[in-house]
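Milestone 3.1: sequence recovery, worked example.
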């Protein structure tokens, strides 16, 4: 898919989801970092339910370190992989206090040094907390990018990110990230995507493939009905 075609996709997705935004509840960069760390292999809805209590209980890195690990594990037990995530949170808090004055660093380079923080998490934090344009490729962004043909099916997550960065204007990276997430989360779902009537269908290679069998079935059904009508007339 070339830049002009990507532009058409971006314009259409902007019309579909003009108010797309980060759905993880947070009030500062520290809370956002914790929320994104917890969101790995977990829905934002579940994370928000857990952090509603978590962020009332813990306000600072010191407070996370002041309780036993088992207590923190219990606080986030509804989250998948909660034991590893509790350990990462404590290690992250310790590193923040030892190396960054208890504050979340603003640079991507420093963020990825934090325990439990990978490239995607760092992209989310720099873009949403610090206003630095970035495209975080999560499962939704990866899926819709490949279905639309912006990326190839065998591309890695990093390759998908690089292709999006090359084809999307830098000033639109963050908003595009949110809109593609909304597209994948609420419309182009992993199971049962809403291809029928989708405004992107004409530009979507995967959608065309999915709709072809349905079209063939309708044609066959129409042919059978016509044959039945003609037979009754005779």
């Amino acid at each position: 898919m070339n830049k002009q075609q990507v532009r058409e996709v971006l314009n259409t997705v902007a019309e579909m989801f003009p108010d797309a935004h980060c759905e993880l509840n947070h009030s500062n960069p520290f809370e956002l970092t914790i929320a994104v760390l917890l969101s790995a292999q977990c829905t934002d809805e579940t994370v928000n339910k857990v952090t509603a209590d978590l962020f009332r209980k813990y306000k600072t890195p010191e407070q996370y370190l002041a309780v036993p690990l088992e207590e923190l594990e219990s606080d986030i037990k509804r989250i998948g992989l909660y034991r590893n995530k509790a350990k990462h949170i404590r290690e992250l808090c310790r590193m923040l206090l030892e190396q960054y004055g208890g504050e979340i660093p603003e640079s991507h380079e420093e963020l990825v040094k934090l325990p439990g923080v990978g490239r995607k998490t760092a992209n989310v934090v720099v873009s949403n907390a610090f206003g630095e344009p970035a495209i975080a490729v999560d499962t939704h962004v990866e899926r819709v990018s490949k279905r639309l043909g912006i990326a190839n099916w065998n591309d890695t997550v990093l390759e998908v990110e690089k292709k999006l960065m090359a084809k999307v204007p830098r000033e639109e990276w963050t908003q595009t990230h949110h809109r593609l997430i909304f597209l994948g989360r609420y419309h182009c779902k992993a199971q049962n995507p809403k291809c029928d009537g989708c405004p992107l269908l004409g530009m979507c290679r995967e959608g065309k493939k999915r709709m072809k069998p349905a079209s063939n079935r309708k044609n066959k059904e129409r042919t059978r009905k016509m044959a039945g009508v003609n037979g009754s007339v005779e």
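Residues 204-233 form one domain. The chain is about 65% helix and 0% strand.
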